[in-house]
Amino acid sequence: MVWWCPCSCSALTSVQGIMGTSPKMGRKHIQRINNNWIWHCCGAFQGFSPAALTAFPLAALGGCRGSEQAAQCPGAVAVQKRIDCHPQPGASQEACEARGCVWCSAGASNAPWCFFPEDSPYGYARSGSRSQLILSPSVCHRWDSPLVDLFFSNQFLEITTTVPSTSVYGFGEHEHPTFKHNMDFVTYGMYARDQAPTSFANLYGVHPFYMCVEPDSNAHGVLLLNSNAQDVTLSPNPSLTFRTIGGILDFYLFMGPTPENVVQQYTEAIGRPHMPAYWSLGFQLSRWGYNSLDVLKATVDRMKHYDIPYDVQHYDIDYMERRLDFTYDKVNFAGLPEFMKELKKNGKHNVVILDPFVTKDEEPGTYRPYELGQEMGVWVNNSDGVTPAVGQAWPPGYSVFPDFTNPRTVEWWTTLCLEFKDVLDYDGIWIDMNEPSNFMRGQIPGCADTEINNPPYTPSITDRSLAEKTLCPDSKTYLGDHYNTHSLFGWSQTEPTFNVVQQATGKRAFVLSRSTFVGSGKHGAHWLGDNFSLWKDLRRSIIGILEFNLFGIPYIGADICGFNYNTTYELCLRWMQLGSFYPFSRNHNSEGNIEQDPAVFGDTFAEISRDTLRIRYSLLPYLYTLFYESHVHGGTVARSLMHEFTSDQETHGIDTAFLWGPAFMIAPVLEEASTVIKNGLEVPSAWKKTYTTVSAPLNKIPLYIRGGYILPQQAPATTTTESRLNPFGLIIALDEEGQASGSLFWDDGDSIGKPGPLV
């Protein structure tokens, strides 16, 4: 199977990285995987200036074309083939035609009225003394047939490609309404943003990766490795239009042919997911708003009263003294160090939150994190590259922001985290707000009116602003302008946090990061952010979990029962049932909302939650084995039905049920006042193509085991520390030939080192 790069450079030249040459993204990413080459397709080349590129007309490049379709307007392209020529707001006929484009109304919703003519230029060449370089397809090939247009300028790069089907998945981070994307001229922006999940909004991380299932049921994946603000438009042709305002067009193609192969090849390029500690697969509890150790103790006591499985306690910013990193409130949380040690004696683990901003306004000599950072010069700076950028966040006064791309910042962070371990005996660190979040539009005194702060084109992101709730794009980091490095902030913080947690604990690291980028799964976990206590959010959490498994971050979950708003009894109960099968299972909510831990709603709720969590705990050996296989081979842990039954077209749109690995299916109730799953919510009966209605009263969640598989299990307990001492068992589900197979990975659960073989 051969894939052609849509460019004339060699696919085997040295890879340029996220913004330029990068030692972390070198030749090792151009390699043969499963007997297929992963190609590096570049749209910019060392030694060539974008300013020196000149357009060649389409006819001169001899591009290949698909079949012609009737246009809606005389001389215009068919509506479904239109490529937006004026993607920014404010299009008019005058502005459109001034660009040499066509203006014509469209009956289809969201279709552009201003679009490129079919004979628009799409090839570029370097003029001058050097040999000519033309970026163009020489044949109709699998990824792009044909390449519709390519634009390359100083702050605007655009490329359009057709795709072979509408079964397209991925791109993030967003709250998508469906796992299989709507291709009706939908645009998604990608630029890290502190923003609660909202339809079509750019959220906390950036993942310009998609997977497409072709008509012959083969799958392929494509990554655009670019950290600048960008967007992608999905069109019904079907086609994809990528736009970014910096970096290079650095494409990687992964040929599958199965969806699992695509993810395995992708994570071989970007980094395999880390191996989580066994205890981190247990149920976890959190709340922003305990506000005192007494309230937290009461929560722990009622969980114990109902014997609900529970392994990890999280501590949000209310444990801190005035929301200052590396402190704890010695009044409201007096005795916290001793309490954490007591939890550990009882087999539980503790995770503390740290934010990526440090107040500069404490009395001199009283706040070591700022003074040490000032001494070491670790902050993101203003455009002058000297004075620290000053914004505002949770701590009192004004804050500065560590630059984790700077090696000195890593030293500073490591020192403080190791010192804090002697204060609070944590087992993991939760890094929040690391987009980075700033409660202002840029820093003091505001962003200068320059093209880097206000580029000619701003992608389709919230507020059409690069500085809203973050720092000015012209701020300076160790790697360059914040314009280029903004969406790398969380990614650059995750690895040093992972390393220091391992150093501090001597065990496998637990790092939970809100902001992620390509490759973050190698060192961290993620949750889906500040969701809402709504049935919509319950349902869409499945989509987010499936997508992050595609992105190489399988240790993923959503805040069970919702973070924002007050939950309800039924919603929270159904969410506890679903959340019991998130790879990362944590109940968490916001300050000012009612308590929502599974022990607070009374006897019946607690009993149902306990029974469901015991099923999870009994299957943890199977889940742990899936994480081992993901760590070693790079595949998914949670996956869609399409992933396993790719040739069945009906599965391509199913996102109301999901699988652990190939063998265990979860089919939750996702609608209010429902006691059945109608038509199985398209859940296969006996794993065949027939569908059925399943009874699901309030105390039940439908679960299925696939014939032909053996699942290892272990008697559950209230912590994994206890359950790991219990007897093993096997669930054997025979296929129609009376056969079944399975595997088990087992070790001590938290040691650092290369894992052993499967059993």
Mean pLDDT: 87
Put simply, the count of helices is 15
Instruction: Find the structural class using helix and strand composition.
Output: alpha+beta
* CATH domain class of the domain at 638-733: Mainly Beta
| Low-pLDDT stretches | 1-72, 121-148, 679-683
- Our estimate of the beta-strand percent is 15-25%
Annotated CATH topology of the domain at 638-733: Immunoglobulin-like
The main sheet comes to: 7 strands, parallel
The general outline is globular
Instruction: State the end-to-end distance.
Output: 34 Å
Task: Write a brief structural summary.
This protein is an alpha+beta fold and 759 residues long.
What is the strand and helix layout of this fold?
Elements: E1 32-33, E2 36-37, E3 40-42, E4 53-56, H1 58-61, H2 93-98, E5 102-103, E6 114-115, E7 123-126, E8 134-135, E9 147-153, E10 156-162, E11 167-172, E12 186-190, E13 207-213, E14 219-224, E15 230-235, E16 239-244, E17 250-254, H3 259-270, E18 284-285, H4 293-305, E19 312-315, H5 336-345, E20 349-354, E21 358-359, H6 368-376, E22 399-400, H7 407-421, E23 428-431, E24 476-477, E25 480-481, H8 482-485, H9 489-505, E26 511-513, E27 526-527, H10 535-550, E28 556-557, E29 559-560, H11 569-579, E30 586-587, H12 603-618, H13 620-633, E31 638-639, H14 641-644, E32 658-660, E33 664-666, E34 676-677, E35 694-695, E36 703-705, E37 709-714, H15 720-723, E38 728-733
Parallel strand pairs: 18-19, 18-30, 19-20, 20-23, 23-26, 27-28, 29-30
Antiparallel strand pairs: 1-2, 3-17, 4-7, 5-6, 7-8, 9-10, 10-16, 11-13, 12-15, 13-14, 14-17, 15-16, 21-22, 24-25, 31-32, 32-33, 33-36, 34-35, 37-38
Helix pairs in contact: 6-7, 7-9, 11-12
